[in-house]
């Protein structure tokens, strides 16, 4: 039995310690906002926060995150600047990858509230959007910076 703290709540799951965090979130905890795509950490669709840092949940085991604070897209508050910006800028096309993209952006903005274009590219370079909404994602990031009340440089 593994105990996990996800989105501020404690859950228990009868899974082995080497079980993928992604599948425990989706299949056992029924938190299906985190998506499966590539299965090897390359695309970012499964991104969650572990102790505030973006992590690919498909490559992390529940044993590795035991005792750590996990946040999924469901745990990102509705008034979070990233969620508000995504709606304002209509970033989503098909939407499949967007929970992971949004979690990656939220992590970036918590580390760098006013990121430069190079910092955005560096952090977002390994996130794959199947629909190619990269220009909308860029606009969404800028809107999130502005909504955060920071004076970000246009990216």
Mean pLDDT: 91
Q: Please state the second-level CATH architecture of the largest domain.
A: Roll
Order of helices and strands: EEHEEHEHHHH
Determine the CATH topology of the largest domain: Ubiquitin-like (UB roll)
Strand segment count: 5
CATH homology-level superfamily of the largest domain: Beta-grasp domain
What is the first-to-last residue Cα distance?
46 Å
Helix percent band = 25-40%
Count of discrete alpha- or pi-helical segments spanning 4 or more residues? 6
Largest sheet: 5 strands, mixed
Strand content: 5-15%
Q: Rg to the nearest angstrom?
A: 15 Å
The overall number of domains is 2
Structural class: alpha+beta
Order of strands across the widest beta sheet? 2-1-5-3-4
Shape: globular
Report the top-level CATH class of the largest domain.
Alpha Beta
Which stretches are poorly predicted, pLDDT < 50 over at least 5 residues?
151-155
How do you describe this structure in short?
By secondary structure, the chain is α+β, with helices and mostly antiparallel strands. Helices cover 36% and strands 14% of the residues. It has helices at 21-28, 62-65, 81-88, 98-111, 117-124, 134-147, and strands spanning 2-6, 9-13, 47-50, 53-56, 69-71.
């Amino acid at each position: 039995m593994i105990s996990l703290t996800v989105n501020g709540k404690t859950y228990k799951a009868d899974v082995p310690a080497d079980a993928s965090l992604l599948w425990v979130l989706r299949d056992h905890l029924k938190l299906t906002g985190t998506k499966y795509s590539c299965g090897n950490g390359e695309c970012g669709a499964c991104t969650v926060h572990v102790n505030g840092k973006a992590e690919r949940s498909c490559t992390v085991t529940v044993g590795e995150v035991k005792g750590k604070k996990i946040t999924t897209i469901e745990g990102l508050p509705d008034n979070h600047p990233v969620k508000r910006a995504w709606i304002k800028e209509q970033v989503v096309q098909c939407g499949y990858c967007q929970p992971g993209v949004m979690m990656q952006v939220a992590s970036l903005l918590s580390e760098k509230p006013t990121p430069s274009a190079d910092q955005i590219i560096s952090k977002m370079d390994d996130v794959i959007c199947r629909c190619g909404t990269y220009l909308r994602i860029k606009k969404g990031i800028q809107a999130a910076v502005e909504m955060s009340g920071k004076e970000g440089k246009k990216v």
